[in-house]
């Protein structure tokens, strides 16, 4: 996994948080296998289309070998002790946030944000419809949104660091 090789801590689903302590489910291996199955089915559909239509397409790249990253057996983690200051929370394709205990939801249950910025300092969003442009929910649009939001995140982190000093 690229992120793990870059030093990210990959875990299973978070089941609870108390202060800086996070409880983690023993689901990562199962979740990875399910995601790999979905990826393989999607690629098979693409390959089938190419075969049926005779579309000109490059040869498929070899599939990566998946392995559960080190640290995946972790069931509890103290963020402060581990030195973790940033969390990337991938919530999937359904926008429901019963776990989000921060006052940023509007009446319809959506995260109130403008261009990915919320009223809660340090809480940002990506991949929401029309966040900054029409293709914000798609892979080809979320990257540009991420680049633009990163400046706001860097500014927030600099300000937080100054305030903590």
Features of the shown structure:
Putative flavoprotein involved in K+ transport, 2 domains, 3 strands, 4 helices, 3-stranded antiparallel β-sheet, mainly alpha, single chain, 165 residues, FAD/NAD-bd_sf
- Name the average pLDDT: 84
Instruction: Please estimate the helix content.
Output: 25-40%
Number of helices: 4
- Overall radius of gyration: 19 Å
- Give the oligomeric state: single chain
Number of β-strand runs: 3
Going by helix content, strand content and strand pairing, the class is mainly alpha
Sheet bearing the most strands, described?
A: 3 strands, antiparallel
Q: Which runs of at least 5 residues are low in confidence (pLDDT < 50)? A: none
Spatial strand sequence of the major β-sheet: 1-2-3
Name the beta content range: 5-15%
| CA distance, first residue to last residue | 35 Å
Return the string of H and E elements.
HEEHEHH
Give the domain tally. 2
Gross geometry: globular
């Amino acid at each position: 996994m690229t992120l793990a090789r870059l030093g990210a801590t990959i875990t299973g689903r978070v089941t609870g948080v108390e202060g800086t302590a996070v409880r983690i489910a023993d689901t990562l291996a199962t979740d990875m296998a399910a995601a790999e199955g979905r990826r393989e089915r999607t690629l098979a559909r693409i390959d089938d289309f190419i075969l049926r239509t005779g579309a000109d397409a490059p040869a498929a790249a070899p599939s990566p070998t998946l392995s559960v990253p080190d640290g995946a057996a972790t069931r509890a983690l103290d963020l402060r002790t581990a030195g973790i200051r940033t969390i990337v929370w991938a919530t999937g394709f359904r926008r429901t946030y019963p776990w989000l205990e921060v006052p940023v939801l509007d009446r319809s249950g959506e995260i109130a944000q403008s261009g990915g910025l919320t009223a809660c300092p340090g809480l940002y969003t990506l991949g929401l419809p029309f966040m900054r442009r029409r293709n914000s929910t798609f892979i080809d649009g979320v990257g540009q949104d991420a680049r633009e939001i990163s400046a706001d995140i860097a500014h927030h982190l600099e300000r937080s660091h100054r305030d903590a000093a």
